[in-house]
Amino acid sequence: MGNWKMHGNLSANAVLLADLRAGAAHAGACDVAVCVPFPYLAQARAVLEGGAVSWGAQDLSAHAQGAFTGEVAAGMLNDFACRWVLTGHSERRAMHAEGDQLVADKAAAALAAGITPVVCIGETLAEQEAGQTHAVIARQLAPVLALGAQAVARVVLAYEPVWAIGTGRTATPEQAQSVHAAIRSSLHDLGVPGVRVLYGGSVKASNAASLFAMPDIDGALVGGASLVADEFLRIAAA
Ligand code: 13P
Fold first, then answer.
1. How far apart are CA 129 and CA 123, in angstroms?
2. From the CB of 34, is ligand 1 less than 6 Å away?
């Protein structure tokens, strides 16, 4: 899954989306998706519909409608046939003060509209250095797991250590696997071991295969490398 973040414009997107649509036909059996800025959802749909690449948004409101200036509701994402929506990306947690409960509420709002939330979790560098990685992950996951097995079975999780995002400093496959194994164990305890858990943080074509070789890494949430069609498609192929 690509996360374009706040990048793109109509003309650049047209080329990137067309290249993805053409290339993904050969990407193999995995799901390939892009999460684009809200204004480009219509464009993503127009180019991608009927092909192998699905699309979604990068955030949504926890509310269904109302006086929430600047917010976008799940029902509005449905109007653009979004299959996915990110919730709780670390940039939203850090820059928009999104807390663990709000992130879970947003995931519930997406589920209620039939959209799959991709719930992002991950520790900061300071938390990692303080040995708090597993505690932070458990704290972030708690309100999501509290939605119950039926809901969580329809969620995708993305582990994105904040210190690996946009830094070129990827977690080693073993580092990522150790956190993914802990997440898997929580999912197992809830009775939903098959939930997909993506890794994110400086994933590139050159490191994707070694990450995907880990037993509990089911895919990737890709930032910068998702803006280059060939690079992103090579990750999908891996
Ligand atoms: P980069 O792949 O650019 O490190 O970004 C990761 C990310 O935040 C995806 O959501």
1. 10
2. no
Strand order in the sheet with 2-3: 2-3, 32-35, 53-57, 84-87, 116-121, 156-159, 197-200, 219-221
Task: Please count the other Cβ atoms lying within 10 Å of the Cβ belonging to residue 150.
Answer: 10
Q: Can you read off the two tokens belonging to residue 70?
A: 């600047």
Helix (H) or strand (E) segment spanning residue 7: none
Is ligand 1 within 6 A of the CB of residue 73? no
Q: What's the pLDDT tens digit per position in 180-232? A: 999 999 999 999 999 999 999 999 999 999 999 999 999 999 999 999 999 99
Query: What positions carry a catalytic annotation?
Result: 89, 160
pTM beyond 0.90: the answer is: yes
Whether the CB of 227 sits within 6 Å of ligand 1: no
CA distance 221 to 208: 11
Residue whose CA is closest, atom 1 of ligand 1?
223
Evaluate whether 118 touches 78 at the Cβ level (below 8 Å): no
**Would you state the structure tokens that stand for residue 138, as one six-digit string?**
């458990």
